Amino acid sequence: MDEYDGRLTQELAPAATLLRALRRTGNLTKAAAELGIPQPTASRRLAALSATAGTPLTVPDGRGIRLTRAGHLLADAAERALDALEHGVRRVREEIDPESGHVVLGFLHLLGRSLVPGLLRDFRADHPRTRFSLVQGSRQDIVERLVSGDLDLALVAPPPTEAVLEWVVLTEQELFVAVPDDHPLSRRQGVRMSDLSDEVFVMLEHGYGLRQITDELCAAAGFTPTVAFEGQESDTVRGLVAAGLGVALLPAFEPHPPSGVVEIPLAPRVTREIGLAWPSGRPLPPAVARFQEFVRRRAQRP
């Protein structure tokens, strides 16, 4: 490390939280208040860092300020360093008292009906002080947030293929064709995907695992589905099916299909794997590791 790099690193260390707050707020007064320091102190830290860097790190922007390109580069580095430091602090705190740990769990909307509540209920029976933050979203959103470090663990279907993630299959879930109760197929005991080539589909948006699976099954059957409506929640998709606006591929609705919807098995049977995923190559905080191991043991049950 040369002299410039050494001096800038020494200046950046105490100013890292300030740069992160400035990027978030775009205002020196708000950034100082967020950090609990006087504005003159924040101003002096910023001026000293700019002087050491040899270039302005902020420029006026209306009534606030914004980071320059150099400021953004340093803020990116500060963000990564603070994330690593906060992760280390969390691990130390949970090492001292692992039962009071915190798990940030991401999962698909469809899994929030029974799978996730059941897992949390059974885990907290033995670890009642472990706290959970629950994040729902599309498969693409959940996987991206897991890779970026926003999530500790994620339940997704199908399991991710990213090399930076590890996963274990927790269970399999059968998929059915959901049709309106007055649909010509509603009395069938089973249907093939090719039987749906002329149907109008109601689907989840791109980025959702079920959309990916449906598109792949249609392609394998030799057709491109006609999509009339796209949604972000399976309950909305079912409602559109009940209204006679199309058919959809969905897991079974428990304990039984809602009014106006009939669920027909596919032939051959189609299932999707639900997996628990986590970042590879990074130690998990104690509470996260304990919940991960709990789910892994659950996955190994016959």
Can you give a write-up of this model?
With 302 residues, the chain is of the alpha/beta class. It folds into 3 domains: 3-95, Orthogonal Bundle (Arc Repressor Mutant, subunit A); 100-170 and 273-299, D-Maltodextrin-Binding Protein, domain 2 (3-Layer(aba) Sandwich); 172-271, D-Maltodextrin-Binding Protein, domain 2 (3-Layer(aba) Sandwich), CATH 3.40.190. Helices cover 43% and strands 24% of the residues. It has 9 helices and 11 strands. The strands form 3 sheets. Strands 3, 4, 5, 6, 9, 10 and 11 form a 7-stranded mixed beta sheet that branches. A hairpin with a 2-residue loop joins strand 1 and strand 2 (64-67). Helix 1 (3-25) packs across helix 3 and helix 2 crosses helix 3 (39-53). The longest helix is centred in the first third of the chain and has 28 residues, at 69-96. The relative contact order is 0.13. The mean pLDDT is 87. Belongs to the LysR transcriptional regulatory family. It comes from Saccharomonospora azurea NA-128.
Short description:
By secondary structure, the chain is of the alpha/beta class.
- Radius of gyration (CA) equals 25 Å
E-strand count: 11
- What's the CATH first level of the largest domain? Alpha Beta
Output the structural class.
alpha/beta
Taken together, the total number of domains comes to 3
CATH-defined architecture of the largest domain? 3-Layer(aba) Sandwich
Instruction: State the major sheet.
Output: 7 strands, mixed
Q: On the 0-100 scale, what is the average pLDDT?
A: 87
Q: Would you identify the CATH H-level superfamily of the largest domain?
A: Periplasmic binding protein-like II
Beginning-to-end CA distance, first to last residue: 56 Å
Q: What is the helix tally?
A: 9
- From the spread of the alpha carbons, the general shape counts as elongated
The helicity comes to 40-55%
CATH fold field value of the largest domain: D-Maltodextrin-Binding Protein, domain 2
How much of the sequence lies in strands comes to: 15-25%
Helix and strand pattern: HHHEEHEHEHEEEHEHEEEH
Low-pLDDT ranges:
none
